[in-house]
Specification:
The structure is a single chain. The chain is built from 8 helices and no strands. It is mainly alpha-helical. It has one domain. α1 crosses α7, α2 packs across α7 and α3 packs across α6. The longest helix is centred in the last third of the chain and has 29 residues. The chain is globular. The relative contact order is 0.23.
Amino acid sequence: MNVLSSALQAVGLFLVTNIDDIIVLSLFFARGAGQRGTTTKIVVGQYLGFGGILLASVAVTFGAGLFLPDDAIPYFGLIPLLLGAFAAWQVWRNGDDDDDTVANKPVSALTVAAVTFANGGDNIGVYVPVFLAVGTGALVAYCVVFLTLVAVLVLAAKFVATRKPIAEVLERWEHILFPLVLIVLGFVILIEGGAFGP
């Protein structure tokens, strides 16, 4: 019952801390529409990024937090901010030419991983106290549930991105929404993390 209780708590914690990823992942699916291997790249990237968050959380829980000071976490916001600024610059450089060719909309696992890790940097601050409060068995249950739900999250984002009305909106506005969401996400992480002061 203890493991079941931990698993249910893990589901709730994962949903609360990662539900916003559906929007970002949906935009990655829209950006990679028509490319071979888009789903695989997004799955790999999401697992790499979330694996980094989980690894950092477990490391801090077991006392290796010296390598990641708390004041560094807000600056993870620079990753999506810079990626969004670069994407916005590409849109500006290309003008109104919203060419849907594969070359203009690359999706890489590393980009997905970087955005996932940056977006979830604040999750480390949420996970560590929970991990400290539970035993090793419960911590393992949390990790297994989290890693299982990463795949569910990606499938949910793909489902959202491929619904006809949503897909049409994403296809039409993705070149603007993608950089905008990343830039806003970057600023939110920086501001909420206290990067600009209390």
